[in-house]
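agent: user wants the structure for Cupredoxin-like protein from Methylovirgula ligni. delegating to structure tool.
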Amino acid sequence: MRAEKSFLVVVLLLVAGTAPVAAAATVSISNFTFQPSDLHIRAGDTVTFKNDDDIPHRVAAEDGSFATKALDTDDVASVTFVKPGSFPYFCTIHPHMRGKITVMP
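agent: tool returned. relaying tokens verbatim.
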């Protein structure tokens, strides 16, 4: 019984001392769409935009909080979201392409 309590205390100390690790998500750009087009993440997470299309795309937030360079086929660009909120975005080259990232605390 004592060994079980000691083991439990060690496990609890290890878990309590572990800092949260930011997650990563990928948005694929393909056939003039963002997939997924509606993404929910946590503050501190990083989103990577990957161009799987045959033509360039440039991703920008409607509020101007982020913008990528023009992404050619297979290019990637990553954005880390620090603040909670809703971040609608679009392709500046093809403005009908739209998506939204919701950042939770």
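agent: one observation worth passing along. The mean pLDDT is 88.
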